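Hey,
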Amino acid sequence: MLQHLHSALQAAAEKRRAFQAMSPSEKTELLFAIAAGRVRL
């Protein structure tokens, strides 16, 4: 249980780092894709 939570937190941290590394236009594109329901986080 705890291991699962830890790996979920680690995955979230990696997604956050990847998001922060994106350019502003890439972030905007990603947010629109999420809003349109095309991308699941």
